[in-house]
């Protein structure tokens, strides 16, 4: 046999041994570490699915024409927000919305080419899914099959993107862009993306309480002031044409916190009489509950963020040592070199061991196989040291998603398009509880059922509240338990000293 043929056979044998096995297929289904592979398949399938939806399901006109009418008035020179009207009413979104839909206005032949608009939203959906899956891949918390099921079973979410053309997907796209940048430690770029998201739709501010704590714990008070200044500067820059001419009209129109939605469109409070729904006292009561829940979860969220910060600092200290060790192994072509090996300090090793023990306990409770924080991986017959520090992303994402979820619970009115404000974070939130897998899927199904009941009923809105409350209780209990166990590990470590 020719040498080249032998080499090819050898490569195929290695490939088969590694990938064409039942264990590898199982890992694609259940192992969060394999999500990056599954993500590629999800994105390709989503592209096909969305194109089929566009061509086979009738487009429903709701707000697109009104958006285009408002943009047309703006392009004719009107900067007074109180005069920017469409068929569904006045313009109630900040300046970022205006600029993006101005681009859509020109791209779609003044809003008339709906089909092209739908294709633009397919692109927006795929970009957002890429950002969402990147976060899930980093944190390694949710099994791939869960994300496959949730991605392809929500009719409501797909319709919001490609059959309705609402502005909510744009705001959420920039939100996930910001979260990815924050997880990459690119704070200023993240703040710009976050502020752009707010400039499209104000609901993004539901993340703000947790983001403030995230800034404080990771960049300090001076850094926090800088990031808040960047957020404010973006708002001033985007709103400049309106603020310079009709500032009161712009602020009242784009940032109206007292808007009262019509009772007939509410998804969550259908069971209340309309007179209570529109009452200011009810609005203030919900605000009080919102603040109380944020205060309740402030301390555990702060601790989660502090632990995330410590792990990121540990990464900065250890990664150069790990890289140097791997370079040494590659050069010397040996499995392990004890000569000139860089040792971890005692504190570093204890911190890493504590993190590993806490992580194992937490994952064991959730019915998952604990993944070693540090493990050798085989590569070219050598062993390579690897520490997946990005798994610490779990500690940052939960408080951020939780802050938004609390805001959703306390919203006076949720419209159908608001579902995407938290849809992509629901698997993460549910896998942050100690519920069994069956209960998690049941809650996902019931929440989806509530959002797909049109028009909403007393039962569907009550069911949605029950599910939300159960998820919140589950998260709260698990957060407290995880922090308590982490403290026990630290205390035990101190005693051993």
Number of helices: 19
In one word, what is the shape? globular
Chain oligomer state: single chain
The level of helicity is 55-70%
- Helix-and-strand structural type: mainly alpha
For the largest beta sheet, what order do the strands appear in spatially?
1-2
Keyphrases for this structure?
497 residues; 19 helices; two-stranded antiparallel sheet; 70% helix; single chain; mainly alpha
Structure description:
A hairpin with a 2-residue loop joins strand 1 (about 85) and strand 2 (about 90). The chain contains 19 helices and 4 strands. Helix 11 crosses helix 16 and helix 14 packs across helix 19 (about 460-495). The protein has about 500 residues and is mainly α. It starts with a helix and ends with a helix. The chain has a two-stranded antiparallel sheet with strand order 1-2. The protein has a two-stranded antiparallel ribbon with strand order 3-4. The model is unreliable at about 335-340 and about 365-380 (pLDDT under 50). It has helices at about 5-20, 20-30, 35-55, 65-75, 95-105, 115-140, 145-150, 155-165, 170-185, 185-200, 210-245, 245-255, 275, 280-330, 345-365, 395-410, 425-430, 435-450, 460-495, and strands spanning about 85, 90, 375-380, 380-385.
Chain-wise SSE layout:
Elements: H1 3-19, H2 22-30, H3 35-56, H4 64-75, E1 85-86, E2 89-90, H5 95-107, H6 114-139, H7 144-152, H8 155-164, H9 168-183, H10 187-200, H11 208-243, H12 247-254, H13 274-277, H14 280-332, H15 346-365, E3 374-379, E4 382-387, H16 393-409, H17 426-430, H18 437-452, H19 458-496
Antiparallel strand pairs: 1-2, 3-4
Helix pairs in contact: 3-6, 3-7, 4-5, 5-10, 6-8, 6-9, 9-10, 10-11, 11-14, 11-16, 14-16, 14-19, 15-19, 16-19, 18-19
């Amino acid at each position: 046999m020719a040498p080249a043929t032998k080499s090819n056979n050898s490569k195929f044998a290695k490939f088969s041994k590694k990938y064409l096995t039942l264990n590898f297929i199982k890992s694609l289904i259940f192992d969060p570490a394999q999500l990056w592979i599954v993500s590629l398949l999800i994105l390709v399938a989503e592209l096909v699915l969305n194109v089929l939806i566009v061509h086979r399901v009738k487009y429903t006109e709701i707000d697109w024409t009104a958006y285009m009418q408002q943009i047309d008035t703006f392009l004719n020179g009107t900067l007074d927000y109180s005069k920017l009207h469409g068929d569904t009413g006045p313009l109630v979104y900040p300046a970022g919305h205006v600029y993006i839909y101005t681009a859509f206005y020109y791209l779609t032949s003044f809003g008339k080419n709906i089909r092209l608009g739908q294709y633009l939203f397919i692109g927006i959906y795929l970009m957002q899914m890429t950002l969402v899956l990147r976060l899930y891949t980093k944190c390694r918390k949710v099994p791939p099959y869960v994300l496959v099921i949730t991605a392809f079973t929500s009719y409501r979410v797909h319709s919001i993107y490609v059959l309705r053309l609402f502005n909510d997907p744009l705001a959420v796209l920039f939100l996930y862009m910001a979260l990815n940048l924050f997880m990459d430690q690119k704070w200023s770029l993240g703040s710009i993306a976050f502020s752009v998201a707010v400039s499209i739709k104000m609901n993004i501010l539901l993340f703000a309480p947790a983001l403030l704590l995230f800034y404080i714990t990771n960049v300090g008070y001076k850094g926090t002031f800088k990031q808040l200044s960047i957020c404010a500067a973006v708002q001033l820059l985007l709103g400049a044409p309106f603020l310079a001419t009709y500032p009161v009209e712009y602020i009242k129109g784009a940032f109206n916190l007292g808007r009262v939605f019509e009772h007939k469109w509410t998804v969550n409070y259908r069971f209340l009489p309309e007179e209570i729904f529109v009452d200011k006292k009810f609005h203030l009561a919900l605000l009080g509950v919102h603040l109380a829940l944020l205060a309740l979860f402030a301390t555990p969220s702060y601790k989660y963020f502090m632990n995330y910060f410590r792990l990121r600092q540990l990464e900065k200290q250890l990664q150069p040592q790990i890289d140097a060790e791997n370079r040494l192994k590659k050069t010397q072509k040996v499995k392990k070199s004890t000569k000139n090996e860089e040792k971890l300090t005692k504190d570093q090793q204890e911190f890493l061991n504590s993190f590993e023990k806490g992580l194992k306990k937490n994952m064991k409770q959730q019915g998952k196989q604990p993944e070693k924080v540090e493990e050798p991986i085989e590569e070219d017959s050598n062993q390579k040291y690897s520490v997946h520090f990005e798994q610490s992303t779990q500690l940052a994402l939960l408080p951020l998603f939780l802050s938004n979820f609390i805001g959703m619970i306390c919203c006076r009115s949720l419209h159908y398009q608001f579902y995407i404000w938290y849809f992509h974070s629901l698997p993460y939130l549910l896998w942050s509880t100690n519920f069994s897998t069956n209960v998690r899927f049941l809650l996902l199904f019931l929440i989806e059922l509530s959002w797909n009941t049109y028009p909403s009923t007393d039962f569907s809105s009550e069911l949605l509240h029950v599910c939300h409350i159960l998820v919140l209780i589950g998260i709260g209990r698990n957060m407290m338990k995880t922090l308590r166990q982490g403290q026990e590990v630290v205390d035990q470590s101190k005693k051993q000293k």
